[in-house]
Structures are given as C-alpha cells and as structure tokens.
Amino acid sequence: TTIGVSVKWLNGTDVSMINWGKVDNGMAWVMNPMNITNTKEVDAILELSTKDKSASITSLLLTWNYTMGTILKPNEWVIVELTQTVTGTGDFSYTTVITATQSS
Predict the structure, then answer these.
(1) DSSP string, the chain
(2) pLDDT of residue 1
C-alpha cells in the first residue's frame, strides 16, 4: 500500500525548503505553520526526523506540535508548527524529514 502526504504552507504552496533565517545559538525558533494532508486511502501516522546535519551543528532539537501516534485518516489534514533549537559554531544546514507510515 502506498502512503503519501502533502506538505504545504498555509497559502497553499508546497513546502520544498524551510529557511529559518538568522537564528541565535541556543534559542528556540518557531516556523510558520504548515498543512500536512494524508493524500492516500490508508490511515497514516507521521514522524519527524532530521538528516544531513552540517558539522557546525553541536546540538539540534527539532520538535512539532503533532502528537506522535495520532492517526491521520485519508484526506484528513493537520496544521503543524516546527520549533528548532540549534547550537553551532557557524552557518549550518540540515534536512527535515516528515515520514508517513501506515497505521496498524
């Protein structure tokens, strides 16, 4: 079974990149809300992770207001806000990964 989600800003444009702008070391920053929609015909559970962290990051905490384990039914959507707290030694980058898995 194929699992899929659509991730869009509230204005309807696809989220392809998140630019947090200038952030201060160790400060929590909240990103603009995003709409995540289950685009397939099976119940899904969302997970948030990161990858490809630059070496300049000494600590990274990325959270969201989605309750882990909450089932997203077909065509249902949820509005989420990401919050990051980063400590680093210079410019940094990382990839945010939102994964949908079939609910059991």
Answers:
(1) ----EEEEETTS-B-------S--TT-EEEPPPEEEEE-SSS-EEEEEEEE---TTEEEEEEEESS-TT-EE-TT-EEEE-EEEEEEESS----EEEEEEEE--
(2) 55
